[in-house]
Sequence to fold (349 residues):
Amino acid sequence: MSAQPESQRRGGEAAALEEQIEELQLRVVQAEERRRALIHIMGDLNESNQRLGDQRKAMLHILKDSHRSNLKLEDSRKAMIHIMGDLRSTTQEMERREQELRDKQEQLVQAGKLATLGELTTGVAHELNNPLNNIGLYVGNVIDRIHMGELTAQGALEDLDKAMEQVRKATEIISHLRTFGRAAPVTFEPVDVDEVIERALSLMHEQLRLRAIDVDLDLFPDELVVHGNPIQLEQVFINLLTNARDALDEVAQERKRIRIASSLEGDRIRIVFADTGPGIPAAIAKRVFDPFFTTKEVGTGTGLGLSITYSIVKEHGGEIALSPTPGGGATFTVEVPVSGHDAATELFR
Fold:
């Protein structure tokens, strides 16, 4: 009986020992799993640290690149400031030279006007001589009647009124010359082209008459208004008249003729000066608007007339062209925009 309980006791102890062993083995397995998990975590942590290290290095590299970029940007900014300074200086220099060029052009135009006035002196002197002679005649009549005791108030008034009319004519001629020759700032205003043509003819009339040159005037019936400078336009027309006059020097008297016509072509005003002279050869025609180019003998022409004419027409937003006159001669055609047209308004704004 005593042997059986002992056996049972030992069996119970063995079972308990096996449970402890199994529990210990489970704990060992769990500890191993935790160890492996910890190793895995440590590996991940190490990789993260490496990535962080790489990112730090990349960030340092980016910062260095950014610093270099900032230095380059600063250098570029300084270079841009320097370029802007140079550009400003260049712009100021260009503006200064443009102003000098405008001043020289105005001086050239003024020189051309004075040269034209010099050529017109003989004809103008003759035109002034007529009213002066008439004034002397009327005043002389009054003096003679006083001496003869035949002077009446009515007769004196009539002669003196006639004398004053001649004074007004002489004054108009002198005023016209002074206005044409005056050096004044160039201003643009509405100008009646036909009125300017007639004023130019009034200055040239005596010279054309003395050379027996007939003028055919075919002006547009309605008002032709251009936005321009009346004195400069008058200089253009006088230059073209002078050119035509000189072209007719060697032409037979019955063929000496200048035709002047104005017309409206859409939004452009066209003015034509055509002579019946010998014409201009094609090889020379290409150069007639060049400064100082002339076919005249030395001392008889400056070669500036047509060049100045070309410059003035361009300043008015226009064009000038040379073509043969049908039947012989040369035709100069000037086209300028009508006042109020969009192109003219934009040009002189």
Notes: Residues 185-349 form a domain with the Heat Shock Protein 90 fold (CATH 3.30.565.10). The radius of gyration is 51 Å. Strands lie at 189-192, 214-218, 225-228, 257-265, 268-275, 319-324, 330-337. Residues 342-349 have pLDDT under 50 and may be disordered.
